[in-house]
From TrEMBL:
Protein name: Uncharacterized protein
Pfam family, one: DUF7824
Organism whose genome encodes this protein: Pedobacter caeni
Residue ranges of domain DUF6493 in the record: 3-323
Coiled-coil regions listed in the entry: none
Domain named DUF7824: residues: 427-652
Domain (DUF7825) ranges: 669-882
InterPro entries for this protein: DUF6493, DUF7824, DUF7825
Length: 887
């Protein structure tokens, strides 16, 4: 056996093969056992590579790969049938030596071929099938192709194409692969040239050796270089590939994959006559809805539109599909030129595409609108022109209306948006009343992770303490298995899992040490529940909602407080504060007012003021946090001088409404320019700012005294302070309006979605968050913010001057591109209230403009200001305009 170890170290596969010829079953079993026991570094190489440096380290690992491959081959040489594959597996490895060798034959394929000459394989088809079960198990294509040529496996086009085009890390070389293909023309025809039929992994990132050296790029660049090398070597691609590539563009594949096929068409020097031959495919691309495919198709159609044989009817029948499409302005302008030249021909004089052509007026680009309007004037019967364009009047620019000879569309009165009807009667929640319902509630919470399901579970458990069955631990096992069998990355589920462990007596698991304090209330409430179970206290939690989704009726809260007073049990102050945060204080009726006057606790004056049973604000020190909450929620815009002599006088939103100063700071480098939004006290925890964020006492919820959370945590946080969410929203403001990571993208999505879903009101600097979302890089955030602004203007009848001023500062200082705001202006609103708000925004932007440092596209602001002013019969402020025009 010592000789065998030396053969492996010397990579002497020939002697290994020679020894295996005469091995019987017992010998092979002993050899397998010995080989599996070997450790390359300890037993064979007798050294550790990590102790080396420089070239010695590189040489060591290069040699180690080959020694490892030789060891794998030694194990393979003990195989005689497919069942032996399992026997040669090394326990400490997660892959099989046979599959490892086939994936990366560092000592070449010759040893394997020589072995199969001695012992012809009838099991390779099974080996190939076994490799297909694991996505990350590959077989080197050169080996696969050799097996096929030897007749050992059947040809499978799909599998062969996938293997060829899967580029594993460090294993491939463009020049070597190109040489292999050129030496195996059948492989080119039957495998390589079939790539257009499959969504191969060309978008993966991998590392390989290119002509320029070792690179790390997307795999499609590997194949682009292969094609270039083949062309340089004189290989001529069959022109049928052009047709195949054009056909492949109609597949529902990822955009970058299809974009690569477009680049390949250019690499193949596709000629105009070839595009003309396949023009029906170009026309089909116009209906895909893909901006890049549409732009590519129109560009080629423009080149062939004058050629003989161009299908003008086919073009007219398909081109209108792109007219409503966003981000295709240049293509639409080109297509309108082609359309104009076609409609001028006598043969098309009776062609009526007025309805389809009018859809071009959906575009907001002035040039597109104007060119479309001219075509409508030239080719549509004047008697029907007005009716044709009437649906688009609210979207038309003044110049477009002038071309059409029409007046602007009248703005509608400021009515409520039908999408936001008056709030329905709030639905009461149902607290679990039986053990079976409580079990269902546990599963419901694990699934939804919502604040309501959390509160309902705890209140149900609280009320059902006497009905917990003796075998409750056994019945809870399925739910505990869900909780304990995985890693939770949110405080919410970590705390809940720890509570369940305590309840069922399984505290053996190590608790997760977390410094995140995104929802400390959850941990506190679970601790209170443990205390209730221990003391058999069934008094209700004060903060448990009475109505969906998280609200509490004032009568219910007062009744709960009276229960505590009757039982002479102290309340949890945080529980009361959350209850007040959720309280529908405006729903207090005469019965509630009579009940609240009976309260005796030190919290009574604050609750009585909150519900309207008292008028005087008396912020006692021990109830300071409670007073701060109820006063600000009840009077969001009022100044409370009563707090001036308290320790809370400097806390946000206590004396004055919540207000944050902010600045936009430009950060330039040789690579990029960033416009960073910095908030007062580093309110949004920006890592760009060295200054530490100021934190406030935990119970002052209107100062958002906790850290930001992840997607499930955000709605839970907001349910704890739904009536004054501004301070919490501002914690989630990203520093930049573009180039953000997933966390920041979610921060401008989930809070905004929660606001809109539950139609919550925003006050003070909370509008800064809305402004940022309106200008943010993700369109879904901009859409939600637009919807919320519309709701606030039309349904809440808010003036939104604060929002207009914030938008003016952000845009004037370059925080986001002007075109993001232009997108908002271009939406087809017909409400005069919305137009007046937009005009106010434009005026504020102009006021904040610095004539010496105007942002890109500032001229568009002037153009829109002029246009909206005309629509609203407003007088232009020439002083504002002159400040900008001096640039």
């Amino acid at each position: 056996m010592n000789n065998l170890k030396q053969y492996i170290k010397d990579k002497n596969w020939a002697e290994i093969l020679n020894q295996c010829k005469s091995l019987n079953g017992t010998d092979r079993a002993e050899r397998i056992k010995y080989l599996i026991s070997l450790d390359i570094d300890r037993d064979i190489l007798e050294m550790q590579g990590h102790l080396l440096n420089g070239q010695a380290r590189t040489d060591f690992y290069s040699n180690r790969q080959k020694v490892d491959s030789t060891l794998n081959f030694a194990l393979i040489s003990c195989m005689r049938e497919f069942e032996d594959m399992k026997k040669i597996e090394r326990p400490e490895h997660s892959w099989n030596p046979m599959l490892a060798f086939l994936a990366k034959p560092s000592i070449g394929i010759e040893p394997l071929l020589k072995f199969y000459e001695l012992f012809p394989p009838d099991y390779l088809a099974k080996v190939v099938k076994a490799s297909q079960k694991d996505r990350f198990t590959t077989i080197d294509f050169k080996i696969l192709w050799t097996f096929y040529l030897q007749g050992w496996i059947a040809f499978d086009e799909s599998y062969f194409v996938t293997r060829l085009f899967t580029i594993t890390m460090f294993n491939r070389n463009t020049e070597e692969d190109a040489a292999f293909l050129l030496a195996n023309r059948e492989a080119i025809d039957r495998v390589f040239l079939q790539f257009h039929r499959y969504e191969i992994p060309v978008l993966d990132i991998s590392k390989w050796k290119a002509r320029e050296g070792n690179v790390c790029k997307k795999v499609n660049e590997f194949w682009t270089e292969i094609i270039r090398i083949m062309q340089e070597k004189g290989y001529v691609f069959d022109r049928i590939l052009v047709q195949h590539l054009l056909e492949s563009l109609l597949n529902n594949w990822k955009k970058p994959h299809l974009d690569w096929h477009i680049r390949l068409l250019d690499l193949l020097n596709t000629r105009p006559e070839e595009y003309l031959q396949h023009q029906h495919l170009l026309f089909s691309l116009l209906n895909t809805g893909s901006t890049s495919l549409i732009n590519f198709a129109v560009k080629q159609i423009k080149e062939i539109s004058k050629a003989e044989g161009f299908d003008e009817n086919g073009f007219v029948g398909n081109i209108t599909a792109i007219f409503p499409k966003e981000k295709t302005e240049k293509s639409i302008l080109l297509s309108l030129d082609i359309l104009d030249s076609i409609l001028k021909k006598k043969v098309h004089e009776h062609l009526d595409i007025s309805s389809e052509l009018s859809m071009v007026l959906l575009q907001n680009d002035p040039k597109v609108q104007e060119k479309g309007a001219r075509l409508l004037v030239n080719y549509v019967d004047p008697e029907i022109l007005k009716n044709v364009v009437e649906p688009y009047l609210s979207n038309l620019k003044l110049k477009t209306l002038e071309i059409l000879g029409l007046d602007s569309a009248p703005l509608s009165p400021s009515e409520e948006d039908e999408a936001f009807e008056a709030a329905e009667q709030l639905e009461q929640v149902v607290i679990p009343a039986t053990w079976e319902e409580l079990l269902f509630q546990i599963g419901n919470f694990i699934r939804t992770k919502s604040a309501l399901d959390f509160d309902l579970f705890l209140e149900g458990l609280n009320q059902l303490q006497e009905e917990i069955p003796a075998d409750y631990k056994k019945q809870l096992k399925p739910y505990c298995k869900q909780l304990f069998g995985r890693f939770w990355d949110t405080d919410l589920m970590i705390f809940f899992s720890e509570f369940m462990q305590h309840w069922v007596g399984e505290n053996t698991q190590e608790k997760v040490k977390t410094r995140n304090d995104s929802i400390p209330f959850v941990k506190n409430k679970l601790d209170w529940m443990q205390q209730k179970l221990a003391s058999k206290n069934k008094l209700p939690f004060l903060s448990t909602p009475s109505h969906q989704p998280f609200y509490l009726h004032p009568k219910v809260l007062v009744q709960r407080l009276l229960q505590y007073e009757q039982e002479q049990v102290n309340i949890e102050m945080e529980d009361l504060i959350i209850a007040c945060n959720r309280l529908l204080y405006k729903y207090a009726d005469e019965d509630t007012l009579d009940l609240v006057k009976r309260l005796k606790g030190s919290y009574a004056p604050a609750v009585q003021y909150y519900l309207g049973a008292a008028d005087e604000v008396k912020p006692a020190e021990d109830m300071l946090a409670l007073w701060a909450q109820v006063t600000r929620i009840k009077q969001p815009d009022q100044l409370f001088a009563e707090f001036e002599n308290t320790v809370a006088k400097s806390y946000p939103s206590v004396v004055s409404p919540f207000h944050l100063d902010f600045e936009v700071v430009v950060d330039k480098s040789e690579y990029a320019t960033w416009y960073n939004l910095f908030l007062q006290q580093n309110w949004n925890y920006s890592w760009h700012r060295k200054a530490d964020t100021t934190h406030y006492p935990a119970f002052f919820y209107n100062s958002a005294p906790f850290s930001i959370g992840f997607r499930e945590t955000i709605p839970f946080q907001m349910s704890l302070m739904p009536q004054y969410p501004g301070p919490l929203l501002c914690r989630y403001i990203p520093t930049n309006a573009m180039g953000n990571e997933v966390r920041e993208l979610e921060n401008c999505l989930y809070p905004m979605q929660f606001l809109m879903d539950h139609q919550l009101d925003v006050h003070g600097s909370g509008w800064l968050y809305i402004a940022v979302c309106l200008l943010f890089e993700k369109k879904i955030s901009r859409d939600l913010a637009t919807e919320y602004v519309q709701f606030s203007l039309l349904n809440r009848k808010r003036a939104l001057s604060d929002l207009a001023d914030i938008l003016g500062k952000l845009i004037a200082r370059g925080y986001a591109p002007v075109n993001r705001f232009i997108e908002y202006l271009d939406r087809p609103f017909v409400s005069q209230t919305i137009r007046e708000f937009q005009w106010l925004c434009l005026e504020r932007i102009l006021e904040h403009f610095d004539g010496a440092q105007l942002p890109i596209n500032s001229k568009k602001i002037i153009a829109y200001y002029t246009e909206v002013s005309v629509h609203l019969d407003k007088v232009l402020d020439q002083d504002l305009l002159s400040k900008v025009k001096r640039k």
